[in-house]
Amino acid sequence: MATVIDGKAVAAEVIETVKNASQTLQTETGVTPGIAVVIVGEDPASQVYVASKGRKARECGFHSVEHTLPESTSEADLLRLVEDLNNDPSIHGILVQLPLPSHIDESLVIQKISPEKDVDGFHVINTGKLTVGDIDEAFVSCTPAGSMLLIERVRGGDLSGLNAIVIGRSNIVGKPMASLLLAANATVTVGHSRTPDLPAACRNADIVVAAVGRPEMVKKDWIKPGATIIDVGINRIPAPERGEGKTRLVGDVAYEECSEVAGAITPVPGGVGPMTIAMLMANTVVSAYRAAGRTPPK
Ligand code: NDP
């Protein structure tokens, strides 16, 4: 049976490091890391994410500000708020919760965030730095960065000689994940909805990162024995066995059956999810160190 990769435990270690770094920065320079989270509209899932980001930021000793704007907020008003936050020296990380209402151009808003405060790592300057291998200078998108940390725990930092597949090619998960694996010397395949024989491509992989958004799509017979599986997917499915109308969370990987052949696997929940928020806090403390003219801790 596969080793279960405990994302909660690794995330707790990251948060502990962030707390200490935040404390040291405050003591030595008087600078408190500051994060601003902006949410537009009333999407319940977004509200849960924003609340948990705020809680975690306070736990890390950050100055945390939340801007909750009505669904009817205009694009111009949102851009003005982002500009104000860009100019606010007490804020080192700006996060605009996605998705935005359809009348607002998401890309325009993300590109408005100062790259130095783009702790989500979505700005083209940061994705560009990642793509050219300038990883220490970039803010890397939090979910792939967290996934990479979990891979390092199992496989070490140098993936030379290993084949990896990333299933999914989104700008926030699949593509940055592929760049990180490549930077760690893995031989990388990126699968997507037009890939003709995904199971065959997957069977060749020592590392499988599934970021698709399809419940339990990756099956046991796709997995090379001993492979490391990182399941990014978060899918809510009906769970009638828990009672009428009940649901449960599953990943993009059929967890039970794939555990029988994999070497190591992340659970859902409790795998990649907690890492995402931990990496957001890590990026924010790094931004605060840079703003204070200090070298951020590793
Ligand atoms: P997107 O919907 O943006 O991208 C999904 C990708 O999967 C696309 O590249 C798409 O291909 C590909 N895909 C869809 N269907 C298939 C298929 N049948 N076979 C092969 N490839 C397919 O999703 P995200 O990248 O934003 O998120 C992916 C998953 O990760 C979701 O479940 C999301 O909830 C979860 N997630 C989890 C996070 C966490 O913190 N754990 C954070 C972010 C996301 P194509 O490009 O060809 O359309």
Automatic annotation (TrEMBL):
Pathway of action: One-carbon metabolism; tetrahydrofolate interconversion
Gene Ontology annotations of biological process type: L-histidine biosynthetic process; methionine biosynthetic process; purine nucleotide biosynthetic process; tetrahydrofolate interconversion
Entry GO CC: cytosol
Record family assignment: Belongs to the tetrahydrofolate dehydrogenase/cyclohydrolase family.
Subunit comment: Homodimer.
Main function: Catalyzes the oxidation of 5,10-methylenetetrahydrofolate to 5,10-methenyltetrahydrofolate and then the hydrolysis of 5,10-methenyltetrahydrofolate to 10-formyltetrahydrofolate.
Protein name per Swiss-Prot or TrEMBL: Bifunctional protein FolD
Record organism: Flavimaribacter sediminis
